[in-house]
Amino acid sequence: MNTIGLALAAATGLMGLGVLIALGTGVRLRAAATGTCTALIGVAGIVAGVAALAGPTFAADLPFLIPVLGARLAVDPLGGLFTAVTGGVVTAAAIYGIGYNRGRHGQRGRAAQALTAVFAWSMIMVPCAASVTTLLATWELMALASLLLVVAEHHRRTAVAEAGRWYAAMTQLGFIALLLGLVLFAATAGGDSFDALRAADPSPARSAVIFVLVLLGFGSKAGLVPAHVWLPRAHPEAPSPVSAMLSAAMVNLGVYGVLRVGFDLAGGGTRWWWLLVLAVGAASALLGILQAAMANDLKRLLAYSTVENMGLIFIGIGAAGVLLSSGAPQLAALALAAALLHVVNHASFKSLLFFGAGSVLRATGTRDLDALGGLRARMPVTTVLFAFGAMSAAALPPSNGFGSEWLLIQALVHGIPAGGVVTAVAIPVAVAVVALTAGLAMATFVKALGVGFFARPRGDGAARATESPAPMLVGMGLAALACLATALAPATLAPALARTVGTTTGVAGDVIAGGVTVRLTATTSTMSPLVITAGLALAIAATAMGIVLVGRRVRRRRAVALWDCGGGVPTARMQSTASSFAEPLQRVFAGVLDPETGVDTASCPESRYLVTQMTYRRRLSDRVERRLYPPLATAIRWLSGIGPILANGSLHRYLAYGFVGVTGLLIVLAVC
Amino acid sequence: MDTVLIFTAIALPLVAAAVCGIAGWRSTVGVAGASAVGAAGLLLADALVLAVHVTRTGPVTVAGGLLRADALSAWMLLVVATIAALACWASLDYLAAGHPSRHGARRYGVLFQLFVAAMTVAVLAGNLGVLWVAVEATTIVTAFLVSHRRTRTALEAAWKYVVICSAAIAIAFLGIVLIYYAARHAGLDSHQALDWAALTAHADRLDPAVTKIAIGLAVLGFGAKAGLVPLHAWLPDAHSQAPAPVSALMSGVLLSVAFAAVLRFKAIADVAVGPAFLRTMLLILALATLAVAAVLLLGQRDYKRMLAYSSMEHLGLMALGAAAGTRLAIAAVLLHVAGHGLAKTVAFLGAGHILHLHGGSSQVTAVRGLAARTPLLGGLFGLAMLALLGFPPAAVFASELGIAVAGGAAGLGWAVAVAFALVLLAFIALITRTGTMLLGTPAGPAEPAPPLGVAAAAPLVAGLVLLAALGTARWPVEHLLTAAAAVVGAS
Amino acid sequence: MSEAAYTQILNICAGFFLLAAVGMLSRRQFAGMIRLYAAQGLALAAIVTVLGIREGSVELLAAAVGLVILRVLVLPALARRALGAALHNRRETSPAVSIAGSLLASAALVLVAYAVARPLIALDPSATTAVLPIALSVVLIGLFALTTRHNALSQVIGFLLLDNGITATAFLATSGVPLIVELGVSFDVLLIVVVLTLLTVRLQAMFGTTDLDGLRELRD
User: Fold this and answer.
1) What is chain B's mean pLDDT, rounded?
2) Alpha-carbon span A318 to A315, nearest angstrom
3) pLDDT of residue B80
4) What are B338-392's pLDDT values in tens digits?
5) Are strands A596-603 and A526-527 parallel, antiparallel or unpaired?
6) Which of A276, A529, A569, C52 has the fewest beta carbons closer than 10 A?
């Protein structure tokens, strides 16, 4: 047993220990002790993942687990990357959670604490599975633990149970799609180990069915359109550390699954698979960022941003698949490396952002941006860290989000001529989507930061906010460090990415080279985040200097009241709200978003011209959801209407079923 | 050794029944209660010894072939004994929690043990006639257990139960008669012609046309006792009206005992008329049962009926596995028997407590915020429901997956797809109802609910722990399961 | 007994057996149904006696005696007890299928039985097995009666009819199943009828009627 095996065994032991501690200790010790265990599980995940990325792989047959079928583990660089990323998120979230769970929004219950450990462990184990059975078992365990954690606050808000219902239904839909796809695959291969699947050669039609089912299964977990509907409901309603784990770690496993099955096990498939992935990714990116731009709920905004980022990652994966099947392996490797880098980056900045949102929730008791504001002075550390995360999410240089999106654009732009008409049409569209998404993300996060943290507080909660306790800041700091490292020196990840891309697609060689400067071997592009950072820092410093200098030259400074047109002292109500900030965008995209807006006026009973109150009303429902899901609900309602006819209580009807059954059987046997 | 083991298994519940009859059942743990639980525990020990013995030495027969213990019967006996022990344990609390009359308690105790005895005979039967008599005996005994509460609905359920099941089982007897007919003409003498071992050994000599009719009728008949369509409609009524421990036993094992009988007939039919015949029939029954269960779950408002339809769903899956018929499939089906049995037992016992807490209303909407009101009961019931829905580490996950994998490997991919689409519908219905019951804040003024006592919770916790252990570890049962699958001719 | 005489007597007995079944479908009065059931039991016993004489089997003759005791004396008596409980319902008021329809249906069921029984006869063509379709039609008619009758008592009688048909099949096809099984089966049937009788009494006490239309509270 090598390092990986030991680390996984340690994670398993820690999971058991964590569950025991959670169930056995008193409420004072519980959160800290279990949180420590969970953090150590995360560390074990990092160790296992990094070890797999660095060198030796690991495989273990565990025939004594899982009745009838047996379990099997293996960690290769692809699995290792995802295990390491998950481990990182888990570690930070667990440390953050120790502080968070002390507050009034904390989850100190036995079940919630035990489930957090189980959830962390199962997420780390999913990429280590090496057979259909093991994958599905860890996958379902993860789904179960996350479902129960999502509904942990069910007695506080009614929306939680609703979110839980959506999540349960969608996760099971995904699971059954996955089950059917993989079972079909295993039936073709004659065995359920990944080695057998790799060796299998299903017919094109069958492998197409397998891929579409598997894409649906993994895609629903990653929040891809149209199976994304649960995500913006469930991620915000979970306790904040769990939100971070869901949005920064669990969604990645959907990416992992598509990579594992699509490239590794099914061997790359045909081009239309990846065009489908590209299309789904593009749709998710657009829909996600548009909804995020409109969201007023901070956590919901972040959840939609996850949909967007998953969309971007799938654009990268789709492009990689298309380019690979178009005979441009180096570019494909670049696109895949960009997608994987974005997985890492997104995990780091999204956990940071969800931690920030959790801190805000803990301090103010609300997630509504319109009731926030003025946190910069009251929660300075949180504000700075959140701002850094927001910068990454908006893909501004010198953040890590910029690095991976730049790589993605590079791969796409150079890939346009690679595959004839198909790529010439599809890839420019993808480039446009990425560009548009980046622009909208900018607006979104300016809104989140500006409306949420700056200016004056709009609510009592925001006015009374105080800075978070140390463990929360440490958790956020860890996530921010990860963001900083990947922002300044993305090339240090190059060997790991190359190995991952190599095991996934079989394209060997470094796609990204260089130390400080990122050099792309497939194209001639280079980018140096440090130089950009230094340049930006210089520019900012120069501007600041200039301002200071100019300020000196202006002699006297007078304090006078702001010119207010006679309207009085500005109040918090005069600030831009999240709705008003998003209003122009909403107008521009009215055709896509289809918002319901209106102004309600209340007037004096004496005269309708004397308006006493005006309310602006806006309802923005998810258009994909509105189109797709109500017909399903209608169908289910129709089906449930059959029940009372089938079982109407009449014994004679029941016996008639039997009579028809028996005589029917006899007649069939007599005729055949 | 063989004789002692087998007869002990049958005698233990009978002795317990006699003790209950003589001593009567008091509200606290008295002689009868102790002997009932003791007998159940001893039965479990006996079943364990028998299982080890049978896996070492192969099938054993006693009483001139009327009784037989092979790996399949040993496994079924283990399941029966385990769940009987849990249900018996829970019965102590059920009867203590304000049971109306001593007379009623005495009758309950006696009938409960007779019920266990009948199931023991049914799984140990080596002769189709004995099997039939034992399965029919379960109907007779449970009829009074179903109507135990003496309400209008309980009586209605009992009537429907007896009429539908005895009609079904009569049809099954016609099938057995025809098998006997075919066997006699295949050269088996009158002692062997209903002997299961002899029939499977000489099944290739049976007349295919007659055997088809015979097996078809027998499968319909025993299928009805197993909750398969078309004679399934007794199930939700009876299971929802019986006292909770009885529902647990009926839903958890009685259905599976009848299904094991179907497997025995399958072993004969696969050789006599080829596997295609029963595969087609079981597929139709499986998909129809799943469809009925899913549709009725979607509109369900009563949580005990919901549990009953969930049993139909699981039996439908078992039928699907039996249709696949490979060794993996049958092993998975048998694991499913245990997994579903344990989970359903805990769920029904939990539902019994919930019913008690809500003044006898079994409406889903009457129960809200259970997790906040009584966290322990809500948690245990919720976990049992999650296990039934097929989440790991419960054994149901592994067995459902095994059934799907085996179905796919047997070329039944489309049937597996349809079946699991229906399972998805059932899942949505079940999780929504469970969510309504458990989550949110309690309806109305939150009167403090009496917490679930340790004695009441213990059998439920034990059931769940066992369920998780069974779903995680492979080695203790693997050998027995594959041996049992081999017994019914799965390869 | 000569082959021809045997065939003829067997056919006559079987004819009566079927006729009694059809007769039960055509009656509304429970008392009449029970009388017909006892008569059918006699016909069944006669069939078994004829079989026993032909095969010179004492076992079969003993079985015939047993059948007379159980199906001519005990079971009808039990059914009458249930009838005694059902004070106000002495007749089947509203069968789901009218009497005329029932008779037509029974004719169709006889046809089905003949079609189904072909492989059974083909396995062992003889005068005895030639009567098998009759027994099978009684099974189907019994099932039909069980399904369409709206009163607890007529359901009991339908069940008994079904059981008579199966017993007749057993004797005609194979001269009866092994004794221990036969005993167990008879005992079980007896118990079921006892259970049904008891439940009928309780139904009468609780619902005030033995009409089953009231049993509609458990539904979805």
Assistant:
1) 92
2) 5
3) 96
4) 999 999 999 999 999 999 888 888 999 888 889 988 899 999 999 999 999 999 9
5) unpaired
6) A569
Q: How confident is the model at residue C182 (pLDDT cuts 50, 70, 90)?
A: confident
Q: Which residues of C touch A (CB under 8 A)?
A: 96, 109, 112, 115-116, 118, 140, 143-144, 146-148, 150, 212, 215-220
Question: Total domain count for chain A?
Answer: 3
Asked whether residue B135 carries a pLDDT value surpassing 70, the answer given is yes
Q: Could you say which of C119, C146, C173 has the minimum Cβ distance to residue B177? A: C173
Per-residue model confidence (pLDDT) at position A637: 92
**At B68, phi and psi to the nearest 5?**
-155, 140
Is A350 inside a domain boundary?
yes
CA nearest to C70, candidates C169, C152, C192:
C192
Q: What is the DSSP letter of B366?
A: G
Rg (CA), chain C: 18
Which of A15, A61, A68, A209 is the best substitution to test chain B (most B C-beta atoms within 10 A)?
Answer: A68
Sequence spans of domains, chain C:
3-214
What is the amino acid identity at position C128?
A: T
Cβ-contact A145, A118 below 8 angstroms: yes
- Chain centroid to CA B161: 16
Q: What is the pLDDT of residue A516?
A: 63
Considering the domain architecture, whether residues A353 and A441 belong to the same structural domain is answered as yes
Q: Is A619 helix (H, G, I), strand (E, B) or coil?
A: strand
**pLDDT at A85 (0 to 100):** 97
Going from the C-alpha of B87 to that of each of B234, B245, B247, the distances in angstroms are 22, 5, 9
pTM comes to 0.95
Residue among B160, B316, B135 at smallest CA distance from B241: B160
B interface mutation test: which of C159, C186, C195, C196 has the most B CBs within 10 A?
C195
- In this predicted structure, the answer to whether residue B27 has a pLDDT above a threshold of 60 is no
Tally: H helices and E strands in chain C: 8, 0
Across chain A, mean pLDDT equals 91
User: What is the layout of strands, in order, in the sheet containing A518-520?
Assistant: A512-513, A518-520, A526-527
* φ, ψ dihedrals at B374, nearest 5°: -130, 90
C-alpha–C-alpha distance, residues B303 and A23, integer Å: 29
Do A507 and A391 fall within a single domain? yes
pLDDT in tens, B260-289: 999 999 999 999 999 999 999 999 999 999
Same domain, A620 and A649: no
Query: Does residue A484 share a domain with residue A617?
Result: no
Residue contact B209–C207, C-beta within 8 A? no
C-alpha–C-alpha distance, residues A202 and A447, integer Å = 50
Q: Are residues A611 and A659 in the same domain?
A: no
Q: What are phi and psi of B73, to 5 degrees?
A: -70, -35
Whole domain around residue A332: which residue ranges? 129-533
User: Among residues 21-60 of chain B, which lie with CB inside 8 Å of chain A?
Assistant: none
The closest of A162, A174, A163, A276 to A221, measured between CA atoms, is A174
Could you report the predicted ipTM of this complex, rounded to two decimals? 0.96
Residues 280-339 of B with CB under 8 A from A: 281, 292, 294-296, 298-300, 328, 331-332, 335
In three state form, how does the secondary structure of A152-164 look? HHCCCCHHHHHHH
Same domain, A598 and A661: no
pLDDT digits (tens, 9 = 90+) for A450-466: 999 998 898 888 999 99
What radius of gyration, in Å, describes the C-alpha atoms of chain B? Answer: 21
Helix/strand/coil for B282:
helix
CA distance A275 to A273: 6
For residues B361 and A241, the model is more confident at A241
Does A345 share its domain with A404?
A: yes
Q: Do A651 and A504 share a structural domain? A: no
Which residue is associated with the tokens 């179907």?
B262
Residue range A543-551: mean pLDDT, rounded: 88
Question: What b/e string do you get for A305-315 counting C-beta neighbours within 10 Å, with b at 16 or more?
Answer: bbbbbbbbbbb
